[in-house]
Amino acid sequence: MSAEKNRVLPIQYKEQMALLKKNTEKKGKQFRLVKFFAYASFVVLIIFSLPFSMVISQRAKDILMKSHETYALLLGENLNHQVFQNFVLPVTQQFGKMRLREKQQQALMDRIVRNTTHSFKIDLVNMYDINQGVIAYSTDPGLIGKKVRESLGYKKAVLGQNSSRLVSGGEGLWSTGIQRMGGEKKLRTYIPFMGAGPLLGDAGHVLGVFELIQDLTEEYESLVRFQYLIFGLSILIMGMIFVALLFIVNKAEKTIAERAREQRELEAQLNQSERLAALGEMIAGVSHEIRNPLGIIRSTAELMGSMSTDNESQAKLSGLIVEESSRLNNIVTEFLDFARPQEPHFQDCDLDEILTKNIQFLQTELETKKISLEDKLSHQPMPLRADPHLLYRSFLNIFMNAIQAIENAGTLSVSVSEEKDDYRVIIEDNGDGIHEKNLKKIFDPFFSTKDKGSGLGLSIVRNIIEGHHGRIWIESHHRESHAEKTGTRVLIQLPKG
Fold first, then answer.
1. Domain for residue 477, yes or no?
2. Domain count of the chain?
3. Alpha-carbon span 6 to 275, nearest angstrom
4. Which of 53, 118, 423, 487 has the smallest C-beta neighbourhood within 10 Å, fewest atoms?
5. CA-to-CA distance for 176 and 166, rounded, in angstroms?
6. What is the pLDDT of residues 305-314, one digit of tens each?
7. Can you give the C-alpha Rg of the chain in angstroms?
C-alpha cells in the first residue's frame, strides 16, 4: 500500500504544481488588467475634462453675450424712441421729409445719437437706409454713404427682428464669417428703426436699421483666460484623482501580490506536508522492517566479537559492524520520530535540571575533543511545564551538532535568561558556522551539511519545541578562515506555563 502511494505521489504533485502555475498566471493577468484600468481611467479623465471645461466656458460666453445683447437692445429701444421723437417728428414737420445728407439734419441726428449713447459703452452706431441700401448715418463720418452688404442680422432687422452676433477683428465690417480666436471681438446688434414709438401707441413700419457695435475684446480675453483656467483646473483635479486612483491600484496590486505569494507558500507547504505524510508512512513501515534484522546483525556481531578474542582482525570487524549497526539504529529511530512524532506529555519539571543532565552526559565527549564548556547556568530552580524527556532529546541534539562543528580546543557555551512569561536558552559555539545559503534550509527534513546523517535532527527538534508552543531560530556565519571568530548561536524560547 505504501509503495502504491509513493508511485502515485509524483503524479499528484505534478498536477498540483501545474494547477498552481495556472492560477499564478491568472493572477498575473488580473494585475495587468488593473494597470490597464488605471491608465485607461487617466485617458478617460483627460478626454472628459476638455468637454467639461468647454461646456463651462461656453456657458460663460453665452452669459456674456446675453448680457451685452440685452444691454444693446435696451439702448437701441431708447435710441429708437429718442430719434423718432426728437428727429423724425420735428424734421418731418419742419422740412416735410428727412434728408440726412443735409448738414443741418446731419448735425441734429448726430447730437441726438451722441446724447443718447453718452456714457454707454458703444464704439460705433450706424443707421441704414433700407430704401437706398446705404449707411445714412454713422458716428464714423467716413462710413456715411457706403453700400450696405446685407448680412443675416441686417435682413432680420428689415423684417422687424432684433439680432446680435460676435465677430473677430479680422472680418469685414459687414461680413458673416465665423468667429475666430484672437484679435478684436465686436458684438454687432441689429435693431429695426420703427416708425412709431411706445408713446405713440401702435408700432409702425420699419424705417431703417440701427447697428450698434460693442468692443468685447477685453471681456473675451478674460473669458478665454477663464476657459484656460477651467481647463487647467480640470486637468489638475483629474490628475489628482488619477494619482489617488493609481495609489489605490498600486496598493491593491501589492496586496493581491502578497496574498498570492502567501497562497503559493501555503499551497507549497500543503503539498510538502502531503508528500512528507506519504513519505512518513513509507518510512515507518520500512523502519519496522529494518529494525528486527538490524538487531539480529548487531547481536551476532557482538557474539562474534566475544568469541574471537584470539583473532584481532575478526574482533575489529565485529566492532565495526556493531558501531555501524548502532549508527543505523539511530537513523532508523530518527526516521520513526519524524514519521510518527511523539505528543508531549506535559508535567512539572526544571529547565536547569534538564540542561545540567545534558552537560553531564556530554562531559566525556567534551574532554575527548578538548572543548571548553562555558556553563553560564544559574543552577537555580527554573520551573517549567513541559515534557522533560522530549526537551532532553532536543537539547542533546543541539549540543551534539555544536560539538561536531567545533574543532579541537574549541569553546561551547550555554546560558538561560528568564523573562516574564518564558525562558530563553542560548547554546553557542565557535565552530565553522553555517553558510548563509544553508540557513534557510537548516530545518528542512532530510537536509544536512554532514557527510553522515539523516538530516532529520533539527527538523525533529523544531517539531518538539513548537509542540511546546516555543520558538527556535539559528544565527550563524560561515567561517572562511581560521582567523575569523564566527560560529553558530541557537536560540530557544520556551513558555513557562
1. yes
2. 1
3. 9
4. 118
5. 10
6. 667 656 667 6
7. 52
Is 270 a member of any domain? no
* pLDDT above 80 (res 85): yes
Confidence of residue 171 (pLDDT cuts 50, 70, 90): very low
pLDDT value of residue 281: 66
Tell me the β-bridge partners of 384.
Answer: 349
Task: Please identify which residue in the block is written with the cell numbers 544553508.
Answer: 438
Residues in the chain: 497
Please answer whether residues 333 and 367 qualify as being in contact, where contact means their C-beta atoms are separated by less than 8 angstroms: no
Please, which pLDDT band fits residue 68 given cuts at 50, 70 and 90?
confident
Q: Is residue 29 part of a domain?
A: no
Q: At 487, which CATH number?
A: 3.30.565.10
Supply the range of the domain harboring residue 384: 344-495
Contact 138, 124 (CB under 8 A): yes
- What is the C-alpha to C-alpha distance for residues 179 and 211, in angstroms, rounded to an integer? 18
Answer yes or no: is pLDDT of 173 > 50: no
Question: What's the pLDDT band for 350 if we cut at 50, 70, 90?
Answer: very high
Structure-derived torsion over alpha carbons of residues 225, 227, 232, 238, reported in degrees to the nearest 10? 170
484 in any annotated domain: yes
